[in-house]
Amino acid sequence: MLTIPRFTPLLAAISALAFAGAAFADARLNATLYGDAFAARVISVEPLDDSTENLQFEREFVAQLERQGFQVTDSAPSILYFWMEDYLGGPAGGPSRKILQFGGTKGTAGQDDARVQLNLYSSQGGGLLNNDPGTAGEERQNPNQVRVGARIRARSSGERLWEAEALGDIEGIDRDGLIRRLIPPIVRSVGTSVKNQNIDVK
User: Fold this and answer.
1) CA-closest candidate to residue 117, choices 130, 103, 128
2) Domains (ranges, CATH) in the chain?
3) Are 94 and 139 contacting, i.e. CB atoms less than 8 angstroms apart?
4) What Cα–Cα distance (Å) separates residue 6 from each residue in 3, 146, 148, 181?
5) Which of 6, 151, 158, 188 could be bridged to 109 by S-S, CB 3.0 to 4.6 A?
6) 174 in helix, strand or coil?
7) Strands (E), 134-182
């Protein structure tokens, strides 16, 4: 006769914690290496736009790359581009609000990463998908997720060599603090492929 094992309270608690940790990761990382191994140890870093915010995070990328043994120069044969995307949450039970951010990389031999910013919903009733004037001013738009993306291209040909993105929930942490916690695992994954790796950002 088959006997069903009984869980002690301690084992039950451990199982519950393990399940919760697996199901509700703080953030996750994906990375893709294209072609042969990326062996270069000299690299340049450029944001997709030169905003004050991105220049601040550029210093963070440079520091993390140098910590991983890379030499960062302005004229390296490979360039790491990076960007941030905000995702906006709507009211409970309502539609989510997403900001799609696009920008253009500079000097990639015609291989531009075209990116544009669109607000699909607007609390002022002027968004692309919010045409009801009666909803104006009723909802607040607060980012609830941040995605940090990075892509390495060959300077001469514009060939894409590697790319990664980390998506994290803004919960119990400020947006800038979350971005700073997502950059190190992105940099550690340079030159490798990673699939849905959990990141602890707390």
Assistant:
1) 103
2) 26-199 (3.30.160)
3) yes
4) 9, 42, 44, 40
5) 158
6) coil
7) 142-154, 160-169
User: pLDDT (tens digit, 9 = 90+) per residue, 13-61?
Assistant: 433 333 333 334 489 999 999 987 788 899 999 998 888 888 899 999 9
Q: Give Dmax (Cα) for the chain.
A: 72
pLDDT of residue 10: 42
Share above pLDDT 70 across residues of the chain, in percent, rounded to a whole number:
60
Rounded Cα distance between 63 and 54, Å, is: 14
Q: What is the pLDDT of residues 156-187, one digit of tens each?
A: 999 999 999 999 988 878 899 999 999 999 99
Which residues does residue 45 pair with via DSSP β-bridges, in sequence order? 80
Q: Which two structure tokens, joined as six digits, stand for 49?
A: 């736009």
The rounded distance, in Å, linking the Cα atoms of 147 and 166 is: 6
Q: How far apart are CA 167 and CA 182, in angstroms?
A: 8
Residue of higher predicted confidence among 138 and 148 = 148
